[in-house]
Design goal:
Layout: H1 4-8, H2 16-30, H3 41-63, H4 70-77, H5 83-93, H6 97-105, H7 114-126, H8 130-143, H9 148-160, H10 178-184
Helix pairs in contact: 2-3, 4-5, 5-6, 5-7, 6-7, 7-8, 8-9
Length: 203
């Protein structure tokens, strides 16, 4: 699993402000707008997602007193009755997000149950797509409302949004990103990091 501190180039002992400064510097360096007409656009986009995910992981670990975030640690103690989903859980836990996403996408649409949406939500968080992750957790909870694992993930992501608008909002068009929240002006503190906000990481 990738060390989020190494991704940001800071020490695990670094102060919160130092970590935020390092994150913002990398966000400016790799922001997709800088590479819009460049051959490096895809590479910069992937790097930006990695930086976003690392910063969110560090923030969540620190909120939990230094422990690994429950979004990622849930796999070590949870299993599925479905062997395919157990394999996907192991892939996510080991940090092999590409393999996990490929396996999930190979599940036929008519077989995608609540656990599928929960696991895809966890993948989307690792990729920095928090709005879509919220939508997937909401769907999982709607399909299986009594599952504590799904409910905990849903509530944790909503708490991360500090209750603004009931959590990360999804648009009817789908495929939205953190910066759609900025443009929607849900609240002043929901601006992405590159705009000076503290809540939503920049896409």
């Amino acid at each position: 699993m990738t060390d989020p501190y190494k991704v940001l180039g800071v020490s695990p002992d670094a102060a919160d402000e130092e970590i935020k400064k390092a994150y913002r510097a990398l966000a400016r360096k790799y922001h997709p707008d800088k590479y819009r007409d460049s051959d490096l656009a895809d590479l910069a986009s992937e790097k930006m997602k990695e930086v976003n995910a690392a910063y969110e992981e560090i923030k969540q670990m620190r909120e939990n007193g230094g422990a690994q975030s429950s979004q990622n640690s849930s796999y070590s103690g949870s299993s599925s009755a479905n062997p395919r989903y157990n394999q996907i859980r192991r892939s996510i836990h080991s940090g092999n997000i590409v393999q996990a996403e490929t396996l999930l996408n190979n599940v036929p649409a008519n077989e995608r149950n609540a656990e599928w949406y929960f696991l895809m939500g966890n993948i989307l968080i690792r990729k920095g797509n928090y709005v879509d992750a919220q939508h997937h957790f909401d769907t999982a909870c709607s399909m299986d409302p009594y599952n504590n694992e799904y409910r905990a993930a849903q509530e944790q992501l909503r708490r991360r949004a500090n209750g603004y608008g009931g959590g990360y909002q999804t648009s009817g068009g789908g495929g939205c990103s953190g910066c759609d929240i900025c443009s929607g002006l849900l609240c002043a503190d929901c601006c992405c990091e590159c705009c000076g906000g503290d809540l939503i990481s920049c896409c």
